[in-house]
Amino acid sequence: MAETAVKPYRGRFVATLIALAIALVVLLSLGTWQVERLFWKEALIASIEARRTAPPITVDEAAGKVATGEDIDYSAITATGRFDHVHERYFLATHDGAPGFYVYTPLILADQKIVFVNRGFVPDDFKDPAKRKAGQIEGEATLKGLARSRLATKPSSLVPENEPAKNLFFWKDLDAMAASASLDRSKLLPFFIDADNAANPGGYPAGGVTQIDLPNNHLSYAVTWYGLAAVLVVIAALAFRRKAG
């Protein structure tokens, strides 16, 4: 009779050990994954900072790097050309709490290649170029800024679909932008440029709007998962000790 009673107890004991072991492995795995993510994120941040603060590359150098698969995102860059203001594209945006648009303007280079430049932010009241004529720079212009990679797909299902027919964009679809502006795709460079904060005549567009926000909370996440694993071990040890007593 006693032996019969022991068997269910042993079964529950073994099942409990297995469940605890699985839970512990999951918690430790999550902690380790966060540590790996921490190293990856730190390396990414360091790489972006190095590209951002390095001497500016030219558009030709940027195009060459893209062709070989090198990441140019946030690389300091310089370009010279003339703006095709007629084909400005508008991206819904906010800046310092004000609603408005980022103005992406084709820059025609000396060799007739084209690169879209995010010249900066304009409030809703200044979307109409006629209200900011001073900022519509004519002739050859040289600018500095940061190279930005093109997006292959919409970044999230939560992002609205672009409306090229209305010249209204919510994400940087280079092909749609070029098509809506009737640009020669064969001359279009496969990246963007975010202009720096050099002042434009009249104040608009206001450049320097690039957001470099890479939150790095992986260490705290790792500590949380490892801490939960430690708590699980302590609680299990106390429970088994109480049973044994």
Would you mind describing this structure in some detail?
This protein is α+β, with helices and mostly antiparallel strands and 245 residues long. The protein folds into 2 domains: 2-48 and 217-244; 75-203, OB fold (Dihydrolipoamide Acetyltransferase, E2P), CATH 2.40.50. It has helices at residues 2-53, 59-67, 174-180, 218-244, and strands at residues 57-58, 76-83, 89-95, 98-109, 114-123, 140-149, 188-195. Helix 1 (2-53) runs antiparallel to helix 4 (218-244). The radius of gyration is 28 Å and the shape is elongated.
Strand order of the largest sheet: 2-4-5-7-6
Q: How far apart are the first and last residues' alpha carbons, in Å?
A: 23 Å
Q: Per the principal axes of the C-alpha atoms, what is the gross shape?
A: elongated
Strand elements, count: 7
> Low-confidence stretches at least 5 residues in length (pLDDT < 50)?
none
The succession of helices and strands, N to C, reads HEHEEEEEHEH
Mean model confidence by pLDDT: 91
As a whole number of angstroms, the C-alpha radius of gyration is 28 Å
Tally of alpha and pi helices: 4
Largest sheet: 5 strands, mixed, barrel
Please state roughly what percent of the residues sit in beta strands, choosing from under 5%, 5-15%, 15-25%, 25-35%, 35-45% or over 45%: 15-25%
CATH fold-level label of the largest domain:
OB fold (Dihydrolipoamide Acetyltransferase, E2P)
| The level-1 CATH class of the largest domain | Mainly Beta
- Tally of individual domains: 2
Helix proportion: 25-40%
